[in-house]
Design goal:
Elements (H helix, E strand, L loop, with lengths): L14 H12 L2 E2 L11 H12 L12 H15 L9 E4 L1 H13 L5 E6 L5 H7 L3 E6 L9 H7 L4 E7 L11 H11 L5 E5 L19 H4 L2 E6 H4 L8 E4 L2 H14 L5 H10 L4 H4 L1 H16 L5 E2 L7 E5 L8 H12 L1 E2 L1 E2 L12 E5 L4 H11 L3
Parallel strand pairs: 1-11, 3-4, 3-5, 5-6, 6-7
Antiparallel strand pairs: 2-8, 7-8, 9-10, 10-13, 12-13
Helix pairs in contact: 1-14, 2-11, 3-11, 4-5, 4-10, 13-15
The protein binds 4'-deoxy-4'-aminopyridoxal-5'-phosphate.
4'-deoxy-4'-aminopyridoxal-5'-phosphate (PMP) binds next to helix 4.
Amino acid sequence: MIPVISKLPQTGTTIFTTMSALANETGAINLSQGFPDYDCSPQLVELVNKAMQNGHNQYAPMAGVMALREQIAAKTERLYGSVYNPDTDITITAGGTQAIFTAISAVIHPNDEVIIFEPAYDCYAPAIKLMGGVVKSLELEPPNYRIAWDMVKRLINNKTRMIILNSPHNPTATILSKEDIDELSALVKNQDILILSDEVYEHLVFDGEVHHSMARYPELQQRSFIISSFGKTFHATGWKMGYCLAPAYLTQEFRKIHQFLVFSVNTPVQYAIAEYLKDEHTYLDLPAFFQQKRDYFRAGLQNTRFKLLPCAGSYFQSVAYDAITDEKDTDFAIRLTKEFGVAAIPVSAFYRKGIDRHILRFCFAKRQETLDNAVDKLIKV
Ligand code: PMP
């Protein structure tokens, strides 16, 4: 073997791969990884077929199919009131993950500090580290996981280059409030701090609340990479299709990396989504669709010994299990899969230090029958 010095010595296989594999192996109901167990719209599949039959099978333009970028610009303006130029400010990516990695690679230099909030989606910290950046994390406290902005202020110094936000939040299902936006705006004012705003669940906000996209606030928008994912929006996580919105000066740097990472992404899917997006119901109906699932699942869980944490957005429901056992969350998640037949994600996996607050995360983007079966099993715990 040739000696290789690992660039990520602490990193193993992600918990999502591990838990989904265990669910498959044991035949457990998989509420761990965040993906629907129902199909995406047949109309969308038909549109992909049509695009393929129409010969859209070669490289797309590096930044993405123009028709799709135009539809995204129109949607963003309609929803958040901000104008993104499809030519210079919008790039189509291979899902949110590639967009996040690309944005971090584009602007983070060795020793730059990046603030993240933990629990955090697991792809932020490795990307920062690979660029030689330094992760500064602020741990949020259950059950409400609010950001203590005075603590964020203390983390900021002249090396701070970026703050990574995620609303609606995976795994905690919280959303940023207008107060958070005001605090954030005050904090970054007159500072050279960029924002990476992971908004892949932008359309999954419940109870009539609004999604506080960075695109709504000009002073934040000007310093933000905003990431979204059609995998989440259109129940097609396997298509790995997303995008990055950023003002031209940031998009210019983003595309320098994007062109060498993937050059361009799946052409027929881009044509299909461009067509599908023309009907705004395809995304405006999502909050009601998922809120119904959330309410149904929460009602079922009321009959178990799991304690429900709040869920304001995303398709995740976290639960505390202190009333059941004092096992470590990783051990309990494995036992729950093997003995009770339901797979969940232990939330300690979202902390670099593996902080265990005895909380599990379930994904409720599932058919009613799946949720019923899962609740029947969880009642026995
Ligand atoms: N960010 C968050 C918070 C996510 O939950 C996910 C998907 N689980 C992603 C980004 C990645 O999205 P995609 O599947 O489009 O790469």
